[in-house]
Amino acid sequence: MTLPPLPDDAIVLRAEVADWRAAVREAGHALARSGATVPGYTDRMIEVLDEFGAYIVIAPGLALAHARPGPDVRRSGLSVVTLAEPVAFGHPHNDPVRVVLGLAVSTAEEHVGSVADLANVFNERDAIERLARASTSAEVHAVLPASGGETRPATDAAETPS
Asked: 118's torsion region: left (phi>0), alpha (psi -120 to 50) or beta?
């Protein structure tokens, strides 16, 4: 399994957000902070939800925010945002969301491979719960082991620029 890189600066734990847009913005900011995307990618992830609805809520409590490959993707990357309080995305069965993954990839083929690899991770019954309860980036990397982290501490949501 080869997931896109997940550096520690793309991990935000216990983010306080008002709604799904703010949750997706956190995931997008984390991707941009890690250098995987430019800030405009965040807006495209939100546009996907506006256009297609909450299909990105792929399992109970888990959303996979993403957009098509484009010029605002510098390199493939992954972000993880856990929420202090769950938020509704409008999915009829999988709301509320406690964990938002941000995914940026350079090609359609890589998108398919990354989604398949993530599906394998979340075949583990407790993977979402372990991410939601994570208090360190090491705990996040224990769930997403192939993502290859760095040694900097995870971003506290209070320090995350909006």
From this structure: alpha
User: Can you tell me the distance from the alpha carbon of 41 to that of 37, in angstroms, rounded to the nearest whole number?
Assistant: 6
Q: Which residues of 47-62 are buried (b: 16+ CB within 10 A; e: fewer)?
A: ebbeeeebebbbbebb
What pLDDT, in 10s, does the model give residues 32-82? 999 999 999 999 999 999 999 999 999 999 999 999 999 999 999 999 999
Q: Is 66 noted as a catalytic residue in this protein? A: yes
Separation of alpha carbons 136 and 61, rounded Å: 19
The model carries a pTM of 0.86
Spot the catalytic one: 29, 66, 91, 141: 66
Distances (CA, A) of 19 to 84, 85, 87, 96: 12, 10, 6, 11
Peptide bond preceding 145: is omega within 30 degrees of 0, i.e. cis?
no
* Both tokens assigned to 124: 């583990």
